[in-house]
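_Per-residue structure_
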Amino acid sequence: MKKVCKDWVTNAFDDNLVNSSYWQEFEENAKAASAEIIHAKDLQAAQTAISGLITTLNVNKIIATNDETSPELTTLYKNIELMGSEIYTNKFDIAEHAPTADLGISMAEFGIGETGSVCVDTYSYEARVVGMLPPSHIIILNANHTVKNVTTAFQIISRVFNRGYMGFITGPSRTADIERVLSLGVHGPSRFFIIAVDEMPNRRVH
C-alpha cells in the first residue's frame, strides 16, 4: 500500500512530541466527538475486540488496509477471515467491494490530544475509501502515539510529507445541514471505533 511515509516512527516522530502523555486528553475529546474507544493490551487482544464488534454489528463483508511491513497485522486479518467473515485487503478487491462492505478497518499514525482526532496516512485510494464508504469504521491506534495539538501534528507531518494525502478523522461522520438537526452517518460511517493498543510491535516506549 502506497503511503506518504513508510516508517513514521523512524522518520517523523520525536520522543518529545509524540508520546503517551497526551492520551487522557485525546481519549476525552475523542469520546466527546462520539468515537467509541476500546483498549487492548496487544494485537491479539485487538483481534478479540474486533471479533466482538463483527458479531455485534452483524458484519459479513470487511475491507481493510494492510501494511506489508507488519506480518502481525496480516495474521490478524487472516484469523478474522477464518472466523467466517469476508475480508478484502487487496486494493482492487477493496475498490470492487467498498460500496457493499459492512465494515472498514485501517491504521492511524497518531492521535491528537487537542481535538481527539486520529491522523491517517491516506495516500492510497484504498486508505481513503476504507474509512469513508462502510457504515462502520475501526481504527487501530498505538496508544503511545499521541501529540499535543494540531500545530504539533502538522510539524510531524511536515518532516516527511512530499506529496499525497493525509487525513484527520474526528468521530463518526456528522452533518446538521437539514434543519440544523445533527445527524450521524450521512456522508460516511455512523459508528467510529478506535482500538487503542498498548503494546504494538516495534513501538516506542516512553
Summary: The helical segments are 8-11, 23-32, 43-56, 71-82, 91-97, 125-130, 150-158.
